[in-house]
Structures
1.
Amino acid sequence: MASSTALWSFALVVGLLTLTPGLDTALILRTAALGRRTRAWGVVLGIQTGTLIWGALTSLGVTALLTASHLAYEVLRWAGAAYLLWMAGRMLASTFRGDRAGSGAEVEVGGADTLAGGWRQGTLTNLLNPKVGVFYVAVLPQFIPAGAPHFTMGLALTSVHVVLGMIWSTVLIASASALGTWLRGARARRILDRVTGTVIGAFAVRLAVSD
């Protein structure tokens, strides 16, 4: 397989994966819908940082430990599930405090509108999801042509995933911002947090019970 063919083929696979609604989509949409555009871009950069790290580790063969070591996978799986449950719990709890908590609770749940805060949240969300690592271990090597530099080609393929993720995230943030005025109303914000918290909680449970 030629390098150009590998890049286009991988772009098709991860492009479909990127468009599939999931945890990253829910987190980006919620953050942007609450008017925290700076934090939303931080979340996007954090998610893509995690993707680059997974791609680099896979290219080096390190993430093969997740498939070879049951203990390593279990530790990461439970850590990821606990983190997602904590995040979902905070979102859901805030919706029952109502207006009594005011803007302080909103900042507590969503975090301050800073790039660094969003980056930490996005990076942790991505790196604590072992299924991302397992996906890269299973898929990435299949698109590296025989004889190509393993690490360099692996990073090139991962960069394709990152670029597609950035493009789709731009669409998500723009869409959420367009509805921002309505979504930042008290009632709409409670609905948004309950839906997002439920989605993230469901991902946490699914991660915890998956084999």
2.
Amino acid sequence: MSSAHPAAAVELDDLPQPYLLFLGDVTEAGYAKTAFGLRDWASDRCIGQWGCGSTIDTGLPTLTPLEAWVRGARGIVIGVATPGGAIPPRWVEALIEALEAGLDVVSGMHTRLSSIAPLADAARRLGRRLIDVRVPPDGLPVGTGRRRTGRRLLTVGTDCAVGKKYTALALAKALAERGDAVDFRASGQTGILIAGRGVPMDAVVADFAAGAAERLSPAAEPSHWDIVEGQGSLFHPAYAGVSLALLHGTQPDAFVVCHQPDRPHVLGYPDFALPDVVEVIELTMRLGQRTNPRIRCVGVAFDTSRLDADDATARMHAEGARLGLPVADPVRGGDAFTALVDAVRAVSP
């Protein structure tokens, strides 16, 4: 039996679908995670891609806003996440072109679309909608730290954009296929666009962040799983705060560490090396025990998208032997991922 869905500022049915994915002018794939996430987990809602100087290719058809509208698109989604969630002024002309073609604009950025005067003026003139999904629901409480019924798993990371969302979605899908009661709980803009509900944790006032995580993963039947999408990293020089709030508020019974084995440093922070997976496990255990003394690590998820199959298999096998835990790439699947799912299901209610 599925538990109640937490409140969300935007519901999926309210969004103008299908989408044209806007890539801006980014050149680093790690910043296009919203576009890739929608392509991989909501492909039936994606018509094509478009940018204004981007070198990123999602594999979807490249279409102008007008071409996309003719093919059925009704919204353009900003498919990238810039540092700090700002919408650069150089994008505004392109977004106005999308409005003029008949598309509403959907954004998961921190900058509110309506705060950009030329964009707001164009939307009013054309009768189009500006929709922000990175808006937390009203009435979020302060965290209590009290235990709740149900089982929870949190994906944690060595960095941003290392597969926390993909891992959570893949685990939720696998548990559902085995007949388990499970909900994917979205904590970021891309997950909310995929699931149609959730809480954008990095947009919550700090005092209420742990309470928001509690609201995101409410009490449920003892056998029910909430698979919670993690954010940032406890080791991130800028975003560790939201990671800690999720850890304390979700009170996970289990966690999976997500890591990209060929990434040398924190994305966008070349002076900060990625922590070792062991460091992440130890710190997550130490801090997580504050609200759930029974917390445990059940495995590791590798993003091996930049490795060939043989190299990926070798690295995952070596890491599994080193840690004594299942290590898998949820996208590649296979026996390694089955072992990870089995480890999750072995956690007692």
3.
Amino acid sequence: MSSLSQLEPRPVKSSSNTQDDIVYEHIFDAILEQRLAPGTKLSEEALGEIFGVSRTIIRRALLRLSHEQVVSIRPNRGAVVAAPSVEEARQIFAARRVVELAVTELAVANATPEKLGRLRTMVQEEQDAFARGDRGSGIRLSGEFHLELAHVAGNTPLLNFQRSVVSQTSLIIAQYEVGHKAHCSFNEHEELLKAIENGDKDKAVAMMKEHLDHIEAKLNLDGESASTDLHVVFSGVVKKNRR
């Protein structure tokens, strides 16, 4: 999950993208799909080899990701995928509720048949991804649905903030989700989209709040996070057997 070798380039979204943009998008997508785990070291040298670009370009992409708080750049130690603490996770969800509810309200006001058609296509692609067992693509498409809502809302500052909190939420899910419970967001996206199509602002906003509540309810933010230290994980078992 955390290997940089999984950063296989996907089709470039626009031929006008710069090398910086391309590298940024691939790393962003890998984080959104949870192919890069929180805490993964992002070696400039390895990324440069993967994408065939200079370390200067890699450094610019990582700096851009750090501004969105999905990458942490540590002095003299390099960059890693961010690993939000429990308190940071709670704050991110609180911030996301504020921005998502505003985005939803504006999306209802600014929706057009063309914009709604794009959202409808994204929901279908998300459903298809989960149906074929491609959880990574499903999670990415789920995040992209929320980003597209911000496009529909037509507010650039909200879109920029949305992009940051959506990717940070993906990191939180990768770090704190309990047992990878069945992902049902596409069903809620379907119902949310119907409310937006019907111009029902109050229902759409209420459904978005409920949707975010469901995502947060799947997370273990009350206890300690899981450990990667086997001695810690099995310490209770060892002590019990020694009695």
